[in-house]
Amino acid sequence: MHRVFKAGFAAGVLALVVAAVAAGSADRQAQTPTLVFGASAEPTSLDSPFISDGESLRAAYQIYEGLIKQVPGTTTLAPGLATSWKASRNGRVYTFTLRRGVRFHDGTSFNAAAVCANFNRWYNFRGAQANPSASYYYNAIFKGFRTKDRGKALYRSCSASGQNVAVVRLTRTYGPFLNVLTNGAFMMQSPAAMAKYGANKGRVTSDGVYVPTGQWGVPGGFAIGTGPFRLVSWKIGDKLELARNDSYWGRKAGLSRLIIRAIADNTARLQALQTGEIQGYDNVAPTDIRTVTQNSKLKIENRPPFNVGYVGINQAEEPFNRLAVRKALAYALDRAAVVRSLYAGRGAVAHEFQPPTLRFGYSTSVPRYGYSPAKARAALTAAGLTLPVEVEFIYPTDVTRPYMPDPRRNFQAFSASLENSGFKVTAKSAPWSPDYLGQVQAGQGGALFLLGWTGDYGDPTTFLDGIFAAKQFGLENALGNRFYAMITKAAAQPNPVKRSNQYKAIQNFIMSNVLAVPYVHTRPALGFARNVQGFVASPVLNDSFASVRISG
Amino acid sequence: MSVAEITEVTLEQNPPTGLIRDAFRRMLRNPGAVFGLFVIGFFIFVAVFAPLLAPYDPQEQNLAAIEQGCCPGPSRDHLLGVDDLGRDELSRLIYGARYSLLIGIVAVSVGLTLGMILGSAAGYFRRLDTPIMRCMDVMLAIPGFLMAIGIVALFGGGGLLQVMLAIGIVNVPIFARLMRGSILGQRETDYVLAARAVGVPSRRILGSHIMPNAISPVIVAGTLALATSIIDAAGLGFLGLGPQDPATPEWGTMLTDTVKYLESQPLLAILPGLAIVIVVMGFNLVGDGLREALDPKLRGRV
Amino acid sequence: MLRFTVRRLLLLVPILLGLSILVFFWIRALPGSPAEAILGERATEEAVAEAREQYGLDDPVYVQYVRYLQSLAQGDLGASAYSHRLVTDEIRERFPATIELALTAMLFAMALGVPLGFYAAKRHGGFFDHFSLFASLIGVSIPIFFLAILLKYAFAVKLAWLPSVGRQDVLITAEHPTGFYVLDGIITGNWNAAWDAFKHLILPAIALGSIPLAIIARITRASVLDVQNEDYVRTARAKGLTPRTVDRGHVFRNAMLPVVTVIGLQAGLLLSGAILTETVFAFPGMGTWVQEAIKHRDYPVLQGGILFIAIVVVLINLAVDIAYGFLDPRIRLSGR
User: Fold this and answer.
1) Is a pLDDT exceeding 80 seen at residue A499?
2) Could you tell me which chain B residue has the CA closest to the CA of C31?
3) Alpha-carbon span C179 to C92, nearest angstrom
4) pTM metric for this prediction
5) Residue contact C271–B217, C-beta within 8 A
6) What is chain C's mean pLDDT, rounded?
C-alpha cells in the first residue's frame, strides 16, 4: 500500500512538474497565413435562410455571397453577385444583371437559374421550416410562404431571362428590399450541392424543434457558395475551418486559412487573445479596451455604430399614459453621465432611434431632453402627482449587448438619477431570454425597461420594425395607431427622397411624444493581434475576412 | 463483553446539555477551533454592527469617481478603493458579511434538518429505506449545482431567498445518505446488536446508541456544507442567479461582477473572494474542532 | 453478491422513471413558456401562438409526457431550440470531453488526496498533519470558478506556460476516433496532439479537482483516525502484526469505506463543477453546453442534457454501491 501511495504521490508531483515545464509550443504561425478568430458561441447553422445569430452569419458571410453587397465599412449598397439592378417604377419588379463567370465551390455555375432556385426554395419552406424559430429573417421580411400566410407574402415569383438576368417580382412595394438582400440570411447557395446533400431534408422532434437531417450546413457537413473562402471542416467543440477559395472571381483572400473557434466567456476571449491562442474577437467589453490598447502586440478595430440602447416606457402603466410624465422621465434620466461613465468612450448620447451613421431618414431636428431633475420634478408636480412617483423598472441579467455591455450598471445609474428627480424606483430583474424578453414583450415587465437594438441592414425599417412592437410599449392606443400608420406608409413609398423625409418625421414624432428614451449609440470594438491587417468592420456585422492579411 | 457491561451501557444517559458543554470545553483546548471561533465571532460582530463600522453607505454611487475608467484604487477617502459604480469597497465588504453568513446558515439548516430526519429514518427503519433512498437517489442523480439552478428557476428566477432555499434543498440528499450510511454501519456493531438482543426499544437504540455515534460524520459534512453553501451561492451568482437587486453587497455577486477587472483593479475581485475563503475556513475549523470534541472515541484524549 | 448486484440494477428502473417525470414536469412548471424559449429573443406573439400549436404544447400534459416517453424509448433526447441540433449528436461530441476532464481531475484528486489524508492521520498532530489540514481547508474554501480564474490568470495568461482555452490547439490537425483527445493522440501515434491535449487538461483538472482533493484528504484523515482506534486494529497490533500489515489489512481497507462513498458523491460535484470550470476555460464539454443552454433558456437541451447527466450519475452511484458492498463484508454477506 505504501508503494501504491508513493506511486500515486509521484504521479501527482510529476503532473505538476510537467505542468510547470510545459512552456507554450513554438510553431504557432505556420508558413501559411492563418487567422484564428474567437467566436462567442458555436455557429448554429451554415444554411443561409436558417441563420439568425451573429456567429453563424459571420461564418456564412465568408462562404456565401448575396446579390448585393455593401461598400466595406458602410451600409451603402455595392455590386455583389449582381453587377447592377433596376427597380420598376411601382417598386414591385426588380431586374438583376448577374456577374458572369462565377462558379460555386463545387464547380457548378452561378446563373439566373441558381438565383431563382434560392428564392423559390425559401418561398417553398413548409411546416417547421417556415416557423420563425427556423427561418427568422425570411419570416420577418417576406412575411409569407407558398403554404403559410400566402396572402401576406411579399415574394411573388422569380424568372430567369437568359443566363445572366434574373427578374424578381414582389406582391407590393417594399422600400427596404435591396438593403434587405445584403443580409446573411439571403445568400446564394449552390442548387446542385443543396440537392446532393439534402438541404431540405429535416424532421421535427417531440418538442417540435426542426432538425435538418441532411448534410447541408450542419457540423460535419457541407456548405457550398461562391465566397472567397470555402468550408473545410466544422466540428462542434473544436473548430470551424475555412480555406481560401483559389478560384474566386474577385481578389483572392489574403489568408490561406481562417479558423473560427467558440469561446463563450468574454474575459476568456480577451485572455486567449493575450496568449495568442486567437488573433481576433468581436465585442471587446468597454472595460477591456484599455487592456488591449496597452498591450503592444494587440490593437482595437472599431465597428461603426449601428445600434441604439434605450429605456423603454410601457404606456399601459399609469401614469405613463400621460405625455407630461413621459417628458419628466426624459428629463430625469441622466443619459450623458451614463454614457460618459459606463461606456469608456465607446458611446455617444442618442437622441433618436437611428444612429447618425445611417444618414437615410436621420433627423437633425428631434426635440432633445437634457438631464434636469428640477424640470422633471416640476413637470411631475404640474401634472398633479405627489412626489416621489413610484415606478417599476426592470433590467436583464446575464446578457451583454453592444448597446448595454453591463445592464446592471446602466440600471443602477439610471435608478440613482431617477430617484434624484422625484421618482421612487422598484428594482426588478430577470434572466435575458426568455424570461426578461418574454415579460417585457408581453407588456408585463413594469413601466420602464432596458432594451436596445442592432440594425441588420442599411434602412430605417431595420430599427423601427425591430424595436416598436406594440405590446411592450403599451402602444395599443390612438397614439400608437397614428404611429404605425406612418411606418406602414413610409415602407410602401417607392420614391427614396420622399421616403427619407417620412422617416425623419417619424423620428420627430417619437421624440416629441416620448414613446421611449434612447440614450446611447455605441461603437463596438474588435480586438486583434497587431499583425492582422486589412480588416474593415461592417456596421451590420457583414464582416468579410477576404481583405485580411497577416503582416510580418 | 459481559451482560453486566451491556446493561451498564444501556443505562447510561447522555443529557444533551452535558454533551455540548463537554464538547465545548474540549474544543477550547484546540487552537485551530479557537481560531475558527474567533474568525466566526469577528464576522458575526461585523455583520451585526455593519452600520456602525462602515464608513459609507454601501449602495451610494459616485459616477464621477469612475469617469476616468474603472476603478480608482485605495485612497485616503476610500481605504480599499471604489467599485465599478464608485461605491466604497470597504463598506460593501462589511455589509457583505451579513449576506454571506445568512446564506450559509439558512441553507445548511434547511438541508441538515430535512436530511437528518430522512436519513436516519431510512437507515434505521428498513421499510422506509427503499422509498426514501430512491427519492434521494433521483435527487442526487441531478448534480447539485444543476438542481440548484433548476430550483431557483422554479422559484421564479434569481434572488437571495431562492438561492438559500435551493442550496438547502440540494443539501438534503447528501445529509440523508451520509446519515443512513453511518447508521447502517452502526446498526451492525456489537453494542447495538447487544442492545437489541436485550430488548431495548428501537427509538431508544436510535436515540441513545446510534445517533451520538453516527452524528460525527454528519457534523463534519455539515461543516463542509456551510462552506460549499456559501461557495455554491457565489457560483449561482456567477451564473447571474444571485440577489435580484444588484445594489445588494453580497460577496459572491461582488466577486463575480468584478472578475473582469482582474487585470486593472485586482483588489475588487480578490477581496470579496478572500472574505469568502476566510469565513468558510472559520466554519471549517470550528467544525473540525467540534468533530474531535464530539467523537466519543477521541473523548478525553484530545 | 450477484443477487445484490441484480437487485441494484433492477432498482434503476424506478429511478430512471422518477428522473424522467421530474425533468419533464420541472420544465413545464417553469415561468415562461417553452414556445417562447424555442423562439428565443425575437419571439412575437403570433409566432409563439403558432409554435404552441405546431409543437403540441397546447395538448394535455399527460399526452405530452407519453409522447416524451415514447421518443425517449427511441433514444431521442430532443433537439436544441437554438442550434437545431440533436441532443444526442451534441452529447456524442461533448461527453467524452467532460469525462476526460473529470477523470483527470479525479485522478489528480485521489493521487494527492488519499496519501495526504493518510499520512496526516498517521502523523496526527504533527507538521504534515497541519499542513494537509490547511491545504484542504484552502481547497474547500475557494469558489471553484474563482480558483479557475486565478489559475488561468497566473499560469496561462501571465506566465504563458499552459493554454488558456479549449482542448486542442486549433492549428493541430488530429484524428479523433474515440473523442478522448489524449487517448486519440496516443492511438493514432500523434504524440504532439496527445501532449497538446494533455496540456489543455492540466489547469481545468486542477481547478475541478481541488474540491474533491480537499474532501478526499479530509475524509481519509478522519476515517483513518477513526479506524486506528477500533478494537480490531488494536487487537491486530496486540497480536504483534507489523505496522505495515496492520495498515494494509485493517486500517486502510476499513478506512476506505467512507472514502469510496465520498468519491461516489463527487461524480455529481464534478459534473456541477464542470459547468463553471469549463466556462472559464472554454472547454467544449457538457458543462459549457449546459451553461449555454441555461443562458439561452434552451429547454429541450436542458431537458435532454440534465436527464443524460443524471443517468450517468445514477450509474456511477450504482457502481459505488456495489463497490461498497465489496468492501464491507457485512453488507455483502447480508445479501442486501
Assistant:
1) yes
2) B156
3) 8
4) 0.81
5) no
6) 81
For residue B71, is the peptide bond before it cis, meaning its omega torsion is within 30 degrees of 0? yes
Best residue in B43, B140, B155 for a mutation probing chain C (most C CBs within 10 Å): B140
Query: Helices (H), strands (E): how many in chain A?
Result: 17, 23
Instruction: Tell me which residues of chain C, numbers 310 to 329, contact chain B at a CB-CB cutoff of 8 Å.
Output: 310-311, 313-314, 317, 328
Q: CA triplet A276, A282, A283: central angle to 5 degrees?
A: 120
- pLDDT at position C57: 67
H/E stretch holding C265 reads helix C253-281
Whole-angstrom distance, CA of residue B19 vs CA of residue B26: 11
| Least Cα separation, residue C50 to chain B (angstroms) | 25
Give how far Cα A391 sits from Cα of A388, B246, B289, Å: 9, 17, 51
B253-278 pLDDT, tens digit per residue, is: 888 778 777 777 888 888 888 898 88
8-state DSSP, B171: H
Residues 256-285 of chain B whose Cβ lies under 8 A from any Cβ of chain C: 259, 262, 269, 273, 276-278, 280-281, 284-285
- Cross-chain CB nearest to A287 (options B64, B70, B245): B70
Whole-angstrom distance between the N-terminal and C-terminal Cα of chain A? 58
Residue range C258-298, pLDDT digits in tens:
777 777 767 777 888 888 899 889 899 988 888 788 777 67
Of A287, A411, A429, the CB nearest to B260: A287
Provide the pLDDT confidence category of residue B49 given band limits of 50, 70 and 90. Answer: confident
For the residues of A435-499, what is the DSSP string, one character each? IIHHHHHTT-S-SEEEEEEE-SSSSTHHHHHHH--HHHHT--SHHHHHHHHHHHHHHT---HHHH
* Minimal CA separation from B43 to chain C, in Å: 16
Do A136 and C90 lie within an 8 Å CB cutoff? no
Which chains border A (3 or more CB–CB pairs < 8 Å)? Answer: B, C
Contact C97 A237 (CB under 8 A): yes
Phi/psi of residue A212, nearest 5 degrees: -65, 135
Would you call C131 an interface residue with chain B, using a CB distance cutoff of 8 Å?
no
Separation between Cα atoms, residue C204 and residue A41, nearest integer Å: 20
Distance of CA C78 to the CA centre of its chain: 22
Q: Given A267, A427, A428, which is nearest B260 (Cβ)?
A: A267
DSSP characters over A179-248: HHTTSGGG-B--HHHHHHTTTT-EEE-TT--EEE-SSBSSTTSB---SSSEEEEEEETTTEEEEEE-TT-
Assess whether pLDDT exceeds 70 at residue A474: yes
Which residue among B61, B240, B264 places its CB closest to the CB of A397? B240
- This model of the complex carries an ipTM of 0.80
Mutate which of B57, B61, B62, B262 to test chain A, going by most A C-beta atoms within 10 A? B61
Which pLDDT tens digit goes with each residue over C55-100? 666 777 788 888 888 888 888 888 887 888 889 988 988 999 999 9
What does the pLDDT read at residue A18? Answer: 46
Residue-wise burial string across C38-54, b where 16 or more C-beta atoms lie within 10 A, e elsewhere? bbbbbbeeebbebbbeb
Cross-chain Cβ contact A207/C81 below 8 Å:
yes
User: With pLDDT > 70 as the criterion, what percentage of chain A qualifies?
Assistant: 93
- Tell me which DSSP letter residue C157 carries: I
Enumerate the residues of chain A whose CB falls inside 8 A of the CB of residue B259: 267
pLDDT of residue A67 exceeding 80: yes
For A340, the grid coordinates are: 460618459
Q: pLDDT tens, A288-299? A: 888 899 899 999
Please give the pLDDT value at position B301. 39
User: A82-86 contacts: CB < 8 A, separation 24 or more?
Assistant: A82/A166, A85/A178
- First-to-final CA distance of chain C: 9
Tell me the percentage of chain A whose pLDDT exceeds 90: 68
B288 contact C CB<8A: yes
Nearest to B297 among C15, C229, C257 (CB): C229
